[in-house]
Amino acid sequence: MVAPHFADSAAEEVARIPRPRLGYFGAIEPWLIDQELIKRAAAERPEWQWVFIGNKSRGVAIESLPNTHFLPPVPYDELPRYAAGFDVCVLPWETERAFTSYGSAIKVREYLATGKPVIISPLPEYESMRDVLRIARNHEEFFLFVEQALQESDPQLARARQNAVSSGTWDARAEWVSELIEKIIK
User: Which range among 9-13, 69-73, 172-176 has the greatest average pLDDT?
Assistant: First the structure.
Protein backbone atom coordinates (compact mmCIF):
# COMPACT_ATOMS: atom_id res chain seq x y z
CA MET A 1 0.00 0.00 0.00
CA VAL A 2 1.37 3.42 -0.93
CA ALA A 3 1.25 6.29 1.52
CA PRO A 4 -1.38 8.43 -0.22
CA HIS A 5 0.28 11.70 0.74
CA PHE A 6 3.16 10.98 -1.65
CA ALA A 7 1.32 9.91 -4.80
CA ASP A 8 0.56 13.16 -6.69
CA SER A 9 1.79 14.60 -10.03
CA ALA A 10 4.74 16.99 -10.47
CA ALA A 11 4.68 20.69 -9.59
CA GLU A 12 5.34 23.06 -12.47
CA GLU A 13 8.32 24.64 -10.67
CA VAL A 14 10.09 21.27 -10.71
CA ALA A 15 8.82 20.13 -14.12
CA ARG A 16 10.54 23.15 -15.74
CA ILE A 17 13.96 21.95 -14.58
CA PRO A 18 15.77 19.66 -17.05
CA ARG A 19 16.21 15.98 -16.23
CA PRO A 20 17.69 14.11 -14.51
CA ARG A 21 16.56 15.73 -11.26
CA LEU A 22 18.06 14.83 -7.89
CA GLY A 23 15.64 16.15 -5.29
CA TYR A 24 15.97 17.16 -1.67
CA PHE A 25 13.57 18.91 0.68
CA GLY A 26 14.35 20.22 4.12
CA ALA A 27 16.85 22.51 5.80
CA ILE A 28 19.60 23.80 3.53
CA GLU A 29 22.45 24.69 5.87
CA PRO A 30 26.15 25.01 4.96
CA TRP A 31 27.11 22.64 7.79
CA LEU A 32 24.40 20.10 6.89
CA ILE A 33 24.61 19.65 3.12
CA ASP A 34 27.73 17.96 1.68
CA GLN A 35 28.65 20.88 -0.54
CA GLU A 36 31.89 19.25 -1.69
CA LEU A 37 29.87 16.36 -3.13
CA ILE A 38 27.62 18.75 -5.03
CA LYS A 39 30.52 20.87 -6.30
CA ARG A 40 32.22 17.71 -7.56
CA ALA A 41 29.01 16.54 -9.21
CA ALA A 42 28.61 19.93 -10.90
CA ALA A 43 32.03 19.44 -12.50
CA GLU A 44 31.86 15.71 -13.25
CA ARG A 45 28.12 15.24 -13.91
CA PRO A 46 26.88 18.65 -15.09
CA GLU A 47 23.73 17.06 -16.54
CA TRP A 48 22.50 16.16 -13.05
CA GLN A 49 20.15 18.85 -11.81
CA TRP A 50 20.05 19.28 -8.02
CA VAL A 51 16.69 20.52 -6.78
CA PHE A 52 16.65 21.85 -3.21
CA ILE A 53 13.35 22.79 -1.58
CA GLY A 54 13.36 24.55 1.76
CA ASN A 55 14.83 27.33 3.84
CA LYS A 56 18.35 28.16 2.65
CA SER A 57 20.81 29.74 5.05
CA ARG A 58 23.54 32.19 4.16
CA GLY A 59 26.89 30.64 3.43
CA VAL A 60 25.66 27.93 1.08
CA ALA A 61 28.53 27.84 -1.41
CA ILE A 62 26.71 25.83 -4.07
CA GLU A 63 24.12 28.51 -4.91
CA SER A 64 25.93 29.73 -8.00
CA LEU A 65 26.44 26.33 -9.60
CA PRO A 66 24.62 26.09 -12.94
CA ASN A 67 22.92 22.80 -12.11
CA THR A 68 21.62 23.64 -8.64
CA HIS A 69 18.09 24.96 -8.23
CA PHE A 70 16.73 26.37 -4.99
CA LEU A 71 13.01 26.55 -4.48
CA PRO A 72 11.46 28.15 -1.42
CA PRO A 73 9.76 26.09 1.27
CA VAL A 74 6.35 24.76 0.36
CA PRO A 75 3.53 23.66 2.66
CA TYR A 76 3.85 20.04 3.72
CA ASP A 77 0.70 18.99 1.90
CA GLU A 78 2.19 20.26 -1.38
CA LEU A 79 5.49 18.36 -1.08
CA PRO A 80 4.17 15.30 -2.97
CA ARG A 81 3.69 17.36 -6.14
CA TYR A 82 7.28 18.55 -5.91
CA ALA A 83 8.74 15.13 -5.09
CA ALA A 84 6.79 13.63 -8.01
CA GLY A 85 9.11 15.58 -10.31
CA PHE A 86 12.30 14.10 -8.84
CA ASP A 87 14.02 11.26 -10.64
CA VAL A 88 15.97 10.35 -7.52
CA CYS A 89 15.44 11.49 -3.93
CA VAL A 90 18.69 12.35 -2.16
CA LEU A 91 19.89 13.12 1.33
CA PRO A 92 23.41 14.48 0.69
CA TRP A 93 24.21 15.27 4.31
CA GLU A 94 27.66 15.91 5.70
CA THR A 95 27.63 13.10 8.28
CA GLU A 96 31.14 13.59 9.65
CA ARG A 97 29.61 15.76 12.37
CA ALA A 98 27.99 14.05 15.34
CA PHE A 99 24.85 16.16 15.04
CA THR A 100 24.05 14.99 11.53
CA SER A 101 25.45 11.47 11.75
CA TYR A 102 22.94 10.60 14.45
CA GLY A 103 20.14 12.76 13.17
CA SER A 104 16.74 11.32 12.42
CA ALA A 105 15.68 12.27 8.94
CA ILE A 106 11.96 11.55 8.64
CA LYS A 107 12.31 12.76 5.06
CA VAL A 108 13.98 9.42 4.19
CA ARG A 109 10.70 7.66 4.95
CA GLU A 110 8.81 10.30 2.97
CA TYR A 111 11.21 9.78 0.06
CA LEU A 112 10.59 6.02 0.21
CA ALA A 113 6.85 6.66 0.16
CA THR A 114 7.24 8.28 -3.27
CA GLY A 115 8.53 4.99 -4.68
CA LYS A 116 11.46 6.87 -6.24
CA PRO A 117 15.02 5.59 -5.80
CA VAL A 118 16.54 7.00 -2.60
CA ILE A 119 20.22 7.68 -1.95
CA ILE A 120 21.33 8.87 1.46
CA SER A 121 24.46 9.60 3.42
CA PRO A 122 25.06 7.07 6.21
CA LEU A 123 22.64 7.39 9.12
CA PRO A 124 22.55 4.59 11.72
CA GLU A 125 18.75 4.76 11.90
CA TYR A 126 18.43 3.58 8.29
CA GLU A 127 21.04 0.81 8.14
CA SER A 128 18.28 -1.78 8.54
CA MET A 129 16.57 -0.45 5.38
CA ARG A 130 19.49 -1.07 3.01
CA ASP A 131 17.29 -3.37 0.94
CA VAL A 132 15.08 -0.44 -0.17
CA LEU A 133 17.49 2.48 -0.22
CA ARG A 134 21.10 3.11 -1.16
CA ILE A 135 23.48 4.29 1.55
CA ALA A 136 26.50 6.04 0.05
CA ARG A 137 29.52 5.91 2.33
CA ASN A 138 31.66 8.18 0.14
CA HIS A 139 31.38 10.40 -2.91
CA GLU A 140 32.27 7.60 -5.34
CA GLU A 141 29.43 5.46 -4.03
CA PHE A 142 27.05 8.39 -4.20
CA PHE A 143 27.91 8.88 -7.89
CA LEU A 144 27.60 5.16 -8.62
CA PHE A 145 24.27 4.90 -6.81
CA VAL A 146 22.82 7.89 -8.66
CA GLU A 147 23.88 6.37 -11.98
CA GLN A 148 22.28 3.05 -11.02
CA ALA A 149 19.11 4.76 -9.81
CA LEU A 150 18.76 6.72 -13.05
CA GLN A 151 18.83 3.41 -14.97
CA GLU A 152 16.27 1.73 -12.72
CA SER A 153 13.02 0.73 -14.40
CA ASP A 154 11.59 -2.13 -12.33
CA PRO A 155 8.20 -1.08 -10.86
CA GLN A 156 8.57 -3.78 -8.19
CA LEU A 157 11.45 -1.81 -6.67
CA ALA A 158 9.22 1.25 -6.35
CA ARG A 159 6.50 -0.85 -4.68
CA ALA A 160 9.05 -2.37 -2.29
CA ARG A 161 10.14 1.10 -1.19
CA GLN A 162 6.55 2.19 -0.65
CA ASN A 163 5.68 -1.03 1.19
CA ALA A 164 8.69 -0.59 3.48
CA VAL A 165 7.10 2.54 4.96
CA SER A 166 3.39 1.81 4.54
CA SER A 167 3.03 0.86 8.19
CA GLY A 168 4.46 4.25 9.17
CA THR A 169 1.35 6.26 8.28
CA TRP A 170 -0.69 7.81 11.07
CA ASP A 171 -3.61 5.57 10.14
CA ALA A 172 -1.44 2.45 10.35
CA ARG A 173 0.02 3.55 13.69
CA ALA A 174 -3.44 4.28 15.09
CA GLU A 175 -4.58 0.81 14.02
CA TRP A 176 -1.53 -0.77 15.68
CA VAL A 177 -2.17 1.10 18.95
CA SER A 178 -5.85 0.15 18.77
CA GLU A 179 -4.92 -3.53 18.42
CA LEU A 180 -2.58 -3.28 21.42
CA ILE A 181 -5.32 -1.74 23.54
CA GLU A 182 -7.81 -4.42 22.47
CA LYS A 183 -5.37 -7.17 23.49
CA ILE A 184 -4.90 -5.60 26.90
CA ILE A 185 -8.58 -5.15 27.69
CA LYS A 186 -9.61 -8.67 26.58
Answer: 69-73
